[in-house]
Structures are given as structure tokens and as C-alpha cells.
């Protein structure tokens, strides 16, 4: 195995300049991203959201293994730490666990998240689909169809299949 050599000379200077520029950019974004984000509460909230994403990632690991109860715990922590996008997957986990009331609550919360699509591709279509399934399982056909049609409009292919089986 080849031993890595430390950076020296021009490489060290270039790395230092790039790292400094990156850190200044990150600091600027945290402090001056909007008018309200220069106070300490907003900065703390941004720092907390980092932990929320860590918890979200851990939840995804369990989710991918179909360990929905364990994943739920991490998604709940993620939400508590300022990452509301986790409502979508927490709602889906609750659906898999047949906790329909909780699934419905979290999926409705997920629909209120701004820019969810920036965090997860297909975010809103997935939430609409899962909410439609929850309503169907609760025998609320009117709401089930409405959410499944919305999911279909948003490009969710499973929604079309599910709707065809409902009719």
C-alpha cells in the first residue's frame, strides 16, 4: 500500500486558498442567507438541521432494510432536529407498520414542507401516493382518489396502477 504524502509547496497553498474560500462562502450563507438568519437562534437552527440530516440518513439505512420501526425512531429525531422532510418517510414507515392515524398525520405534515423536492426526488408525488393509500385503507375513497390522482399528475406511475385496481 502506498503511503500518502502530505501536501507541500504550491499544492498546499492552492488547497489553503480553496479551503478558505469555501469556508468563507459557507459562513456567508449561514449568516446572511436571508434577513432573519443573522440572529443566534437562526444560526443554531441551521446547526441543528445538520444533525437532523444525520439522523435522516441513519433512518434511511433502516428504511432500506425494511426495518420500519427502527427507521421511524431516526426519522422522528430528524424532525425534532429541524429536518421536516423526514415527515414523508416517517409517514411511509407508519403506513408499513399499519399505524394509519400516525401515517396520515405525518404525510399531511410532509405536504406542508417547502422545497421537499430539493431534498428528495419525487417527494410530493410519493407523499400524495402514500396518503392516497392511507385513505384507501381507511375506506375514505373520495380522499384516496383525490390524492392518488394528484400523485399521478406529479408523475407517480404506481398511482395509476393503484387507481386502476380501485375502480
UniProtKB/TrEMBL annotation:
Which UniProt keywords are listed?
Membrane, Transmembrane, Transmembrane helix
Q: Which residues form the signal peptide?
A: none
> Transmembrane stretches, by residue range?
12-31
Q: Note whether Membrane occurs among the keywords.
A: yes
Q: Does the keyword Chloroplast apply?
A: no
Protein name in the entry = Tetratricopeptide repeat protein
